[in-house]
Amino acid sequence: MRNFARRIYIALIIIFLYAPIGTLMVLSFNASKSRAKWGGFTFKWYAELFQNDAILQALWNTLAIALLSSLIATLIGTVACIALQNMKKRNRAIVLGITNIPMLNAEIVTGISLMLLFIVLGIQFGFFTILLAHITFNIPYVILSVMPRMKQLNPSTYEAALDLGASPLQAFFKVTFPDLLPGILSGFLMAFTMSLDDFIITHFTKGPGIDTLSTKIYTEVKKGIKPEMYALSTLIFVTVLILLLLVNKTPKEKKN
Amino acid sequence: MNKKMLSLPYLFWCVAFIIIPLIMVFYYGLTDKTGAFTLENIAAIATPEHSKALWFSLLLSLISTVICLLLAYPLAMILSKMQVNQHSFIVLIFILPMWMNFLLRTIAWQTLLEKSGVINTLLDFLHLPALEIINTPYAIVLGMVYNFLPFMVLPIYNSLTKIDNNVINAARDLGADSFKTFTRIILPLSLPGVISGITMVFVPALTTFVISTLLGGSKILLIGNVIEQEFTVTNNWHLGSGLSIVLMIFIIVNMVLSLVFDKEGEGNAL
Asked: What is the CATH number of the domain that holds B128?
């Protein structure tokens, strides 16, 4: 009985979390342009999606920014973790405190603070400013997932590699790096996801001529969202779902 | 020597893109258009329009945080008792929705909540009274709970899974009933997760302008909406920065609380 109640509770929460996603998927097949009524089943929006240059351009911007910002953030973040490990305890605490600021601070404040910076520096708003902003809020996610791995490292293995004649660089890439890799990968994925889903910071750091999917959706809210957008988000979601299922499936098969 | 150089790129980044921008907010917030020092932009929070928005934001975000906590704690407890090898799967369930754009997911609630929307059709079918909350503060609270619930579940779940089962068994052996085990052992040990969850829900809920725009109609202004409009519509950066400084006071209080309770960063969600 208790087990049953637990399952019901989990099921209700999952319905709550996924109901809007289901709704969007259904809407992507709705022949009527209105969100409020069902006009029959159609694939029309999927076909029109690939004709809609504005949406495709926004998709491209979103993906390019997410990929570049998470790659650069992973690089800077990982190097920072190595440096942090060698710092004095007090300095490390200060730097980690600063690292937490973008995560604990409100996104709207991070957004306007960067906007003011770019205005004062006279940097033209556009792809580059969005990229800089995304790298900034992505780095903490990388550090947070690499740092615990770093702490678990056994420094003797690195020293042993040096003793055995490896150069510091060789020792790092052959010994330390493989141990850090799971943390680096999860940090990268986290950063990529955050960048992809970001609206608020992009809203304040983008220029007039450029849109990501989020900002494009926001400008469409008042006019009514184009159904192609539902089709695109359904495609993205299903792709990720399939990829994740495949990734999760492989190690299990090995165990069997 | 070489290793010290490694910290330079990140230190540069911190100064250039975290510290200087924040100083910029303070500079704009404490000066007027001529560049002279003023406290006017901060005092502007006392005007009826602004203070109403702030109180309303505080109220809605507190309610949302409490609801999130009440929903998330039992959920995290149930999840933490499930098999260990499902750990990544559980985390995944809560991360996965993020792959569908958060604006679209919030807009989808309009379709679900509308007068003749999905939920009301369902309620009508069951002969239950209709739920008319779209464009009201209730819809905003629902949107906040919906969007931020994962940020409450994950830290609590993480801190619960870290509790050594032997500690719980020891309490049982020493004669504590399940209620006592919960209040004396499980709850105190999961406190870092709870605190971290509260921070991660309260700050974005307090400062949001998107959820109120999408679900609250255009009449309800939260403090986030006010600040956003100062920057994108009225272009009064000084006033917007001043109000942001006021907002940051609440965020800093929150940060300090989370630091006091969560010294080792154990409750970090990710």
From this structure: 1.10.3720.10
List chain A residues with CB under 8 Å of B199: 104
Output the CA torsion sign for B219, B223, B225, B231. positive
| Window from A121-125, A191-195, A212-216, B125-129 with minimum mean pLDDT | B125-129
pLDDT along chain B (270 residues), means of 10: 76 94 95 90 92 95 97 92 72 84 92 84 85 90 95 92 88 88 89 90 94 88 94 92 94 80 51
Q: Could you say which of A109, A190, A217 has the minimum Cβ distance to residue B244?
A: A109
Tell me which amino acid residue B244 is. Answer: S
Confidence at residue B263, expressed as pLDDT on a 0 to 100 scale:
57
Give Cα B270 distance to the centre of its chain.
15
Q: A17 in contact with B at a CB cutoff of 8 Å?
A: yes
Which residues in chain B have Cβ-Cβ distances shorter than 8 Å to A17?
93-94, 97, 146, 149-150
- Grouping H, G, I as helix, E, B as strand and the rest as coil, residue B37 is strand
Q: Is residue A234 part of a domain?
A: no
With H, G, I as helix, E, B as strand and everything else as coil, classify residue A37.
Answer: coil
Q: Tally C-beta pairs within 8 A across A and B.
A: 212
Distance CA B243, CA B236 (A): 11
Q: Which of B10, B21, B116 sits opposite A114 (nearest CB)?
A: B21
Closest-CA residue of chain A to B115: A36
Cα B59 to Cα B70: distance, rounded to the nearest angstrom: 17
The complex scores an ipTM of 0.87
Mean pLDDT for A123-149 is 94
* pLDDT computed for residue B84 by the predictor: 61
Is residue B253, in this structure, part of any structural domain at all? yes
Residues of B with Cβ-Cβ distance to A244 under 8 angstroms? 92, 96
- Number of folded domains that form chain B: 1
For residues B27 and B21, give the distance between their C-alpha atoms in angstroms, rounded to a whole number: 10
Flag whether residue A80 sits within 8 Å of chain B, measured between CB atoms.
Answer: yes
Dihedral pair phi/psi, residue A30, rounded to 5°:
-85, 120
Chain A contact probe: residue of B27, B90, B101 with most A CBs at under 10 A:
B101
Q: Which chain A residue shows the shortest CA-CA distance from B95?
A: A193
For the stretch A212-224, pLDDT in tens is: 999 999 998 878 8
Report yes or no: B213 and A221 within 8 Å, Cβ to Cβ. yes
User: Which domain covers residue B191, as residue numbers?
Assistant: 48-231+240-261
Q: Does A212 reside within a domain?
A: yes
